[in-house]
Design brief:
CATH superfamily: Alpha/Beta hydrolase fold, catalytic domain
CATH topology: Rossmann fold
Number of strands: 10
């Protein structure tokens, strides 16, 4: 059986889950093959399908993959609000409280890993282990860039209010897949998986269902010292999986923060930034060993 056919079969076994927080509803997908609870957090502009290839070959876990607010099939934030790191951290905290599963394993890719780090640092009793897939930590900025970043963000906010909702822009699935591949190295199969949950049907084609405000810059970014402080406060065992051919900025940030982890297992696997989608068989054995050992 080909990998693609197997993915189509597992799509039929997914349990859609909607988790209502006090202020927004998040769409999730659940795959159950055991009792080890893992909450999976995807990267920026991705969605919960990011973890479908891993789910396909996993065993012994209860995996809940989340669509962040504004991504995939989750609700968008209300008008006049935006998408900041701390908001995603709050959403994840509310979700863990709502799940009430006790300490869980948080698994995050890229942005999702940065959010998982922050939750585990601030609320260590809620997280038993961390699995970070090509996670650089929060995007940081020098204090000397404060005003420049603030002006850029506010300009984008002002423009977003001037752009009144109009006729949705149509796009074909093939165009969306090509655009996603061009944004970062990944296989066509992985790009298609992501796009199928980031698009919705519109007339004879598709249109984007992710929130355009996701592209607005954050007005204030953490400094290097603040990002280091998050890692310094991690106490749970952490598995950091680095893609050998990731983006240079991601690699540099990961390596710069490695000395700050107290309990870290660092592995390098061949592949690009989305190696967990492109080649899940390369990382699942590491994850399985990590979650089963004391």
């Amino acid at each position: 059986m080909s990998g693609w056919i197997a993915l189509q079969l597992i799509l039929m076994t997914i349990q859609p889950v909607t988790i209502s927080l006090p202020y927004i509803s998040l769409a999730c997908q659940r795959w159950t093959s055991g009792d080890v609870v893992i909450v999976a957090l995807h990267g920026w502009m991705d969605n919960s399908n990011s973890f479908l290839p891993l789910a396909q070959i996993s065993d012994g876990i209860d995996l809940l993959a989340v669509d962040f607010a504004g991504h995939g099939e989750s609700e968008h934030r209300p008008a006049g609000t935006f998408y900041h790191l701390v908001d995603y951290v709050h959403d994840t905290l509310e979700l863990l409280i709502k799940l009430d599963k006790g300490p869980v394993i948080l698994m995050g890719h890229s942005l999702g890993g940065s959010i998982a780090q922050a939750v585990a640092a601030a609320y260590p009793k809620l997280v038993s282990k961390l699995i970070l897939i090509d996670t650089p930590g929060p995007i940081v900025a020098s204090p000397s860039k404060t005003v420049k970043n603030l002006e850029a963000s506010l300009s984008m906010r002002l423009k977003s209010f001037q752009n009144q909702p109009g006729v949705p822009r149509k796009i074909s699935l093939a165009q969306a897949i090509t655009a996603r591949i061009n944004a970062g190295e990944m296989t066509k199969q992985s790009a298609e998986l992501l796009m199928k949950r980031n698009l919705k049907r519109y007339q004879d084609a598709y249109t984007w269902q992710s929130d355009p405000r996701l592209r607005i810059y954050s007005p204030v970014r953490l400094t290097d010292e603040q990002a280091d402080d998050i890692v310094n406060h991690l106490v749970c065992p952490t598995l950091l999986i680095e893609a050998s051919d990731t983006f240079p900025l991601v690699r540099d940030a990961m390596h710069r923060r490695l000395p700050h982890y107290k309990n870290i297992q660092h592995e390098v696997v061949e592949g690009y930034h989305h190696v967990h989608m492109d080649a899940p068989e390369r990382i699942w054995p590491m994850i399985q060993e990590f979650i089963t050992k004391n």
